[in-house]
Amino acid sequence: MRFPDEATLLFFRLLASEVLKIRKMAMSVCSSWLKITKPKASKLPWKVEGVLPNNGPGARWPIAYGYREDNRFILEHEKQAMNTQAEWDSSHFVFKVHYGFYIWPQEFRTYAPPSAQSTSNRPVEAMESVERSVLAIFDESQFMERMIYYFSLEEKKGHDEFNAITYSLFYVSGVKLMLFKKPKNLKFQRLFRNYSIHILPYFTPHLEKLLEDRREGAQRLACEIIAGMIDGAKLWRWEHHSQMVEWLRPRLLSCVEAMTTEAEKNWGTCIATIYGTCESRQLAWLTEALFQLVERPTENSFHTTTRFYLLHCALNQFEWRCPGLWRRLYEHCVPFVGSPHQNLRYRVGGCMASATTGDIQGMPGSDGLAQAKAALGVVTVEEIVRMMDSSVSRGWCGSF
Which residues does residue 258 pair with via DSSP β-bridges, in sequence order? Predict the structure, then answer.
């Protein structure tokens, strides 16, 4: 049975209620309504070339898992930055990280190019009356100011964590956080997925203020909105997606560059959430920005550590699919192995350990690709041990 339109509008207005319990109830109802009314994304069957007989449905162990010729096209995604409209509008995106590592499904389907995602890029005129009424609520400046104010309040001082229900209100998708415990709440994910570019102007003025505000609650809310914004924009047409990136990139970098200790965990969760639901090509602009942050000199070991932390959170979501990016992160880590700062050494050690994700001893694979770890850029445990041994040897020699 269809949820009454009057009730829908009532609960959306209650998002700005001054009573915490009412806001939480409204967030739950609105998030569920947005999920039910989510425009269905278009998917197309994709023919994977060169699949081995035992890498499809009904496969029996032993399975030739890992780097193979049939999944090479996925490994090459990390090298393909979407810099033009033609590249963006012609790309078939594969969001599921597990596809191709072991076996392929009976019918492998990818998301159609954004140019073919008509329902995800609807004009306002194509929306139902109740959807347009919901959009009109967010166009009210007084409502937005009250909602942003209440959502940025800390429930418990010093324990204000990234709230996945706030994030879910901005974007419709499952939340996958591999570096962190699953949040106890699932809020703002879904608005950007359902309303596309049309809702962006209502949030940008408030988001800009949140990014400049150093308070923990403001930073946490900024993380939740940005995670929902980027994830919700992954099927937007090029002109809309590029507009969002152009506005967000400089403001996000400026905020992260001056990150505080209290905001570190929330930003790490934000980055992990984004990378857990998108594909490497869609986030090439953000990945490059995070690497640029690591490359910027700073005399503060905390800032250096947090920049490595954000990159670690990001690449950990791609797992085996980005050996070249893991190689690049490893090369940035090497100069800091002998750092006098324990927090930095600890983070660098974690990054290098994760960088060996693709170095699985005995990984079968097909001949040619599995043997070409150097060509893929796979960081091996043996390579790290040799580097550490060399560093320790130089240290011992220098002490006598």
Answer: none
